[in-house]
Write a structure and sequence with these properties.
Elements: E1 3-9, H1 14-25, E2 31-35, E3 39-43, E4 60-64, E5 69-75, H2 77-107, H3 109-112, H4 119-159
Antiparallel strand pairs: 1-5, 2-3, 3-4, 4-5
Helix pairs in contact: 1-4, 2-4
Length: 161
């Protein structure tokens, strides 16, 4: 499971920072699992598309507003699920492309004599194998940046009041 932990020291009113975080997460479909005076735990609805808010990559998160810090400890299960599906889809597309090119090579006599033609399916498959980690890293960074922005917003909205 991918986890992310972040603390941001600040002297904010914990109740107001808490409201900011909840006003951001609850409309996205998050549910509060545990609630206490110093923090709460939320559960996310899941990350089904890269067009959704990157905060939906959080499956569960524990927010702590005590000791002059805003702290989040998040499990990025939605992101984990999304990257797993992305890997399956992209590798499947590469295998389908490779199968088509191999079938063309095998059944067309003109291509059967050209051994170099077999490099095309290898390239289509290997391209996705090497590109996929970069896409996964991009999605992870996007989710982590969204969490950082949420904490910064909760800290800065009310630190000047």
């Amino acid at each position: 499971m991918i986890t992310y932990k972040k603390s941001q020291p600040n002297s904010v009113d914990p109740a107001r920072a808490r409201d900011t975080v909840l006003q951001t997460l609850l409309p996205l479909g998050f549910e509060m699992i545990n609630d206490s005076s110093y923090g709460f735990t939320v559960s996310g609805p899941g990350y089904r598309s890269t067009r959704q808010s990157p905060l939906l990559g959080i499956s569960t998160a524990v927010f702590d507003f005590g000791r002059g810090q805003l702290t989040v400890d998040a499990e990025l299960g939605g992101l984990n699920r999304m990257t797993r599906w992305l890997l399956i889809i992209l590798i499947s597309v590469g295998l389908i492309d490779a199968s088509i090119f191999f079938a063309l090579w095998y059944y067309l006599p003109e291509l059967n004599q050209q051994r170099w033609f077999l490099f095309i399916p290898a390239l289509t498959l290997l391209t996705w194998v090497f590109v996929n980690p970069f896409i996964i890293q991009f999605l992870r960074r996007r989710c982590q940046d969204a969490i950082d922005t949420l904490l910064s917003k909760a800290a800065s909205d009310y630190s000047n009041n």
